[in-house]
Amino acid sequence: MRIAVCIKQVPETKSVKMDPETRTVIRQGVQAIINPLDLYAIEAALQLKEAYDAQITAVSMGPPQAVTALKEAVAMGVDEAVLISDRAFAGSDTWATSYILAEALKQLGEFDLILCGERATDGDTGQVGPEMAAALDLPVVTYVNHINELEDGKLKVSRLVENGTQKLSMQLPGVLTVVKEIGEPRLPTFRGKLKAKEIELPGFDLESLKLDKSLIGLKGSPTRVVKIFRPEVVRNCELMKAETEAQTVEAVDAMLAFIKEESV
Amino acid sequence: MKNIWILAEQDAGEVKAVSYELLTRGLALAEKSGRKLCAMIFGNNISEDGLNELIARGAERVVAVEAPELEHFLVEPYSVCMLDLIKKYEPEIILAAATTTGRTLMPYVAMTADAGLTADCTELDIEDETGLLLQTRPAIGGNIMATIKCPEHRPQMSTIRPKSTPEADRQEGRAGELIRLRAPAEASKSRVYYEGFEPDTEEMNLQDAERVVVVGRGIKTQANIKLARKLADLLGAALGASREVIDRGWLSYPHQIGLSGKTVTPKLYIGIGVSGAIQHLAGMQTSECIIAINKDPDAQIFHVADFGIVGDLFEVLPILIEKLKRGEKIC
Questions:
Q1: How far is A185 from chain B, CA to nearest CA, in Å?
Q2: Which chain A residues are within 8 Å of B108, Cβ to Cβ?
Q3: Which of A85, B106, B107, B280 could form a disulfide with A130 if both were Cys (CB 3.0 to 4.6 A apart)?
Q4: Rounded CA gap, B10 and B3, in Å?
């Protein structure tokens, strides 16, 4: 089985603090990491490799420094990694990104399964998985929390929806986007780290992918960001101390009165 | 005239309430742009009452596409139907809810239709000069807002965050056109097969709940979670948790709120022993009213809260629960 895992490098938000004055994210000195939700896609691929002897290719579109994310995937156990990078790709929205990724995957040959995280923690759209599936004319199942078994070329999965879990099976080749329940992502191994250090990563750019220039970057993107602003903060926290029992009773009464007043 | 369409959702043939939220959005846009509001819905044996309800709540035209293979959401049959309607009616705008269905179907269709799609919008407007749809959405965990438009490609497509607007009211006597269509033959082809459904054991859906009680690491042990559950029951609230609680296995993943879990926007959020790590804030800071109980006065959660108690939750909760049990009315 050949598996592709699509990953994105994002700014690290875990260690990010909020500026209490401006109530915005302090971005200074923030590291770039693999999108945390993509780690579950890598983990899913590695589990399938253990069960069905798969060959895993990690793919990432981004600036040259996204190589770090790909090497980390290799350190976790991914077999090979490919960087898709070109200045002309900058400004691509999810449509253009999905087109570029789909074209790169086509060039890499047939995959049985393409795995993605549910969404990236920076853009938060969750659109690239299904859009890429459509671009490749493949079926897709989103929000997958368990991959059960492969039987007659069909993969049995469960999908987390609003009020429960759907049981589905998907004819391969196909695309899955996975959620956290798929399994705790493993840590890089020593052997993996050595391999990551030495591995040569082949790259794709505009020319090698022979892309239609009118479909990439800002020009190829149907959507335009016209304004970015900070959400208005109107919260004014009323803080009450509850150190003694009397204070606690008072605070609880105030809290109940507050709920009543706000009628929420 | 190219119109404004919503994608209504159904479950077992009944129209889902989230569809009426979309009608509220659609009505505002229709009024401002002078276009008609229409609804599309895919399913099997969809209830006539439900379809008429869409009309009573504001849709001037309802197109219901039906076939046995549309009973449950499957991306390929549904996208065949939506693409068929796009061809037939040339919608100017399509709005869908940012549900697991909307967030799967819309990108699949947008790619094929060569359309622009904006995810999880919380505000919509029509630009005065151009008549274009202005779509505003939170990004980077709600720390910035971005307004996006789609100048040339059609339809302009958006998914809308559930619970970000009230449901449209029904008005007796509203007239509308109801069109029932059979699904195109192609819709019978799917490479994904539906094999069953297991409903959640938790009675209340976290994302639908108007009140949410959320436990953080401050709850200390799994056994203590029953305290929070008791409070949730008394308030008629759903129970959620921060990532630390889920990672310790004290509650299952569907309870997780935050960047790698669910985004909730209840009327009332009560955080118990939740410190307010940025990943958690990303999933709750747009709640209408936020209350936090935490013993650390510097906890980040207080920065986004409306009301806070700085104290030991094991002292505060028993008193709170006792008062609610004695019937202190807060509703």
A1: 12
A2: 130-131, 133-134, 140
A3: B107
A4: 22
Residue with tokens 């086509």: A106
ipTM of predicted complex: 0.91
What is the per-residue pLDDT across A17-66, written as a single tens digit (0 to 9) for each? 556 555 555 656 678 899 999 999 999 999 999 999 999 999 999 999 99
Side chain identity at B28, as an amino acid letter?
A: A
B86 contact A CB<8A? no
Residues B45-56: tens digit of each pLDDT: 999 999 999 999
Report the pLDDT value the prediction gives residue A253, as an integer from 0 to 100. 94
CATH-assigned architecture of domain B211-325: 3-Layer(aba) Sandwich (3.40)
Distance to chain B for A145, nearest Cα, Å: 10
B96/B122: higher pLDDT: B96
With an 8 Å Cβ cutoff, is B181 touching chain A? no
User: What end-to-end distance do the CA atoms of chain A give, in Å?
Assistant: 53
- CB < 8 Å to A24, chain B: 143-144
On chain A, the residues whose CB falls within 8 A of the CB of B211 are 264
What the block records as the tokens of B323 is: 């008062």
Pairwise CB contact (< 8 Å): A164 & B199: yes
Burial class (CB in 10 A: 0-12, 13-18, 19+), B243: buried
Do B128 and B134 touch, CB atoms closer than 8 A? Answer: no
Q: Return the domain boundaries, chain B.
A: 4-188, 211-325
The answer to whether B91 and B155 are in contact (CB under 8 A) is yes
**CATH for the B4-188 domain, from 3.30.70.1150, 3.40.50.620, 3.40.30.10, 1.20.1250.20:** 3.40.50.620
